[in-house]
């Protein structure tokens, strides 16, 4: 549940990240070294211990499914029971009024930061892009309404993906946008939502899922850290997103984060439909280096990075996905990168109402593909130089699109350029989970001290919204 904002029993207790990073590296014999409180915390997940997920202290000897293979006929055709005051509904994202219901629910009740200063501001265009990839199913957009009024008070979604876990491709879904209305948290709606979306997906003969959360649940396969690159430092200071460091002045900080007026990479231009063949091929080659990736068909690649006719002709206010390629003098595409827009609503600020946020999405480069080992010093040096230039241009393009900050995880090969390009470590961490699938831990680009892991980098190659 990427960015799960339910606050319900599906996400209890949070734990400490430093301890979690150690737990990810433990084997069965190490569990005896845990303190009594750590052992108790592992057993306190009332809902998750009923689900086919790996426990914190479970020794993993081999990767693969947890539950035996079932058939859709074994799965009930009846939805899970709800309290009498609520009823299930299937949300039609082609119906403007129903999209409006989702829009209102998430924009008023989804994830906020700890200080309740910022909240995701999802747009209708974002839903059209994120909820309707090739193969999407209406039945996988699940809502709960108040029976007496019809008000939408909870939502969860799934989209189809082919996941590759260390080369083993599994037909899966990505679970996202789990949200329960603030006034109804504690009604145990979140666990029932998860069970219902699982039932609906199982009926389609799919038994595995990928989800993410800032909450620590049993049991992450990887942990990445959020990082932030200021693009409009003065505004970020005004709204409390950054603080003025001791001994520094505002002009010094503004100068420190100033970027060139325009991109500097020769041959850089927006991705076009005729580029899909080349760009998709480059992307596939690049993705093979990671342990956890989503395999994209050409149709899926086109959807996620071009966004359809609506996005290709979008205005600055409605544009969600930004994708670029580098074409050399011979017509070969050597590089590709993308980022998307997901602004924040700024709460309790009399001057600023919205914060423009750019999120680094997927990228690929041929800079180190001639080497057999991505960790070869020459390969690392070549890729670091190329990515530093490309992502710096991405920051410039995001700034020119009126975004105020550019966010990236420590996933992919990001650790190579984060410090150089002045991405500061954030307070947030994103945990990656596999449902009904055991997997050995996957590096997330951070060390035990939570600093960037430039040496090992990350083997997480999937990016969830």
UniProtKB/TrEMBL annotation:
UniProt keyword Acyltransferase present: yes
Compartment list: Cytoplasm
Pfam families in the record: NMT, NMT_C
Family matches, as InterPro entries: Acyl_CoA_acyltransferase, NMT, NMT_C, NMT_CS, NMT_N
GO cellular component terms, semicolon-separated: cytoplasm
Keywords associated with the record: Acyltransferase, Cytoplasm, Transferase
Reactions the enzyme catalyzes: N-terminal glycyl-[protein] + tetradecanoyl-CoA = N-tetradecanoylglycyl-[protein] + CoA + H(+)
Residue ranges constituting the Glycylpeptide N-tetradecanoyltransferase N-terminal domain according to the UniProt record: 65-224
EC class of the enzyme, as a word: transferase
Recorded superkingdom: Eukaryota
Its EC number(s): 2.3.1.97
Molecular-function GO term, any one: glycylpeptide N-tetradecanoyltransferase activity
UniProt keyword Cytoplasm present: yes
Chain ranges of the Glycylpeptide N-tetradecanoyltransferase C-terminal domain: 238-463
Subunit structure: Monomer.
Biological role stated in the UniProt entry: Adds a myristoyl group to the N-terminal glycine residue of certain cellular proteins.
Membership in a protein family: Belongs to the NMT family.
UniProt-recorded name of the protein: Glycylpeptide N-tetradecanoyltransferase
Organism: Zygosaccharomyces mellis
Lineage start: Eukaryota, Fungi, Dikarya, Ascomycota, Saccharomycotina
Encoding gene (name): NMT1_1
């Amino acid at each position: 549940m990427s960015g799960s904002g339910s606050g319900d029993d599906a996400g209890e207790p949070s734990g400490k990240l430093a301890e979690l990073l150690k737990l990810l590296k433990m084997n069965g014999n190490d569990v005896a070294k845990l303190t009594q409180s750590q052992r108790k915390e592992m057993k306190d997940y009332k809902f998750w211990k009923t689900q086919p997920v790996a426990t914190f202290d479970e020794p993993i000897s081999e990767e693969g499914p947890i539950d035996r293979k079932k058939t859709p006929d074994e799965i009930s055709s009846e939805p899970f029971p709800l309290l009498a005051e609520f009823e299930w509904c299937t949300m039609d994202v082609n119906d403007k009024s129903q999209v409006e219901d989702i829009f209102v629910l998430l924009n008023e009740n989804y994830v906020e930061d700890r200080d309740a200063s910022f909240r995701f501001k999802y747009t209708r265009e974002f839903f059209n892009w994120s909820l309707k990839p090739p193969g999407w199913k209406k039945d996988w957009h699940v809502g709960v309404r108040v029976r007496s009024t019809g008000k939408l008070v909870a939502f969860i979604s799934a989209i189809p993906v082919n996941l590759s876990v260390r080369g083993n491709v599994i037909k899966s879904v990505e679970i996202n946008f789990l949200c329960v209305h603030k006034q109804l948290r504690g009604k145990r709606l979140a666990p029932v939502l998860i069970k219902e979306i699982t039932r609906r997906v199982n009926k389609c003969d799919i038994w595995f899922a990928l989800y993410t959360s800032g909450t620590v649940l049993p049991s992450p396969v990887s942990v990445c850290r959020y990082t932030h690159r200021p693009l409009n430092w003065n505004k970020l200071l005004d709204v409390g997103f950054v603080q003025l460091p001791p001994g520094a002045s505002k002009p010094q900080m503004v100068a420190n984060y100033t970027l060139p007026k325009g991109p500097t990479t020769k041959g850089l231009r927006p991705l076009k439909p005729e580029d899909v063949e080349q760009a998709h091929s480059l992307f596939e080659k690049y993705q093979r280096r990671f342990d956890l990736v989503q395999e994209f068909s050409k149709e899926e690649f086109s959807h996620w990075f071009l966004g359809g006719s609506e996005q290709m002709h979008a205005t600055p206010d409605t544009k969600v996905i930004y994708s670029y390629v580098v074409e050399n003098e011979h017509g070969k595409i050597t590089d590709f990168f993308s980022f998307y827009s997901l602004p924040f609503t700024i709460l309790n600020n009399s001057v600023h109402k919205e914060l423009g946020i750019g999120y680094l999405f997927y990228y690929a480069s041929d800079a180190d593909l001639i080497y057999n080992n991505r960790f070869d010093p020459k390969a690392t040096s070549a890729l670091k130089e190329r990515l530093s230039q490309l992502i710096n241009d991405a920051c410039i393009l995001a700034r020119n699109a009126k975004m105020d900050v550019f966010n990236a995880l420590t996933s992919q090969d990001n650790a190579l350029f984060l410090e150089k390009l002045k991405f500061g470590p954030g307070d947030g961490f994103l945990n990656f989970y596999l449902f009904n699938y055991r997997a050995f831990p996957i590096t997330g680009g951070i060390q035990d001290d939570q600093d960037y892991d430039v040496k090992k980098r990350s083997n997480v190659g999937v990016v969830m919204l």
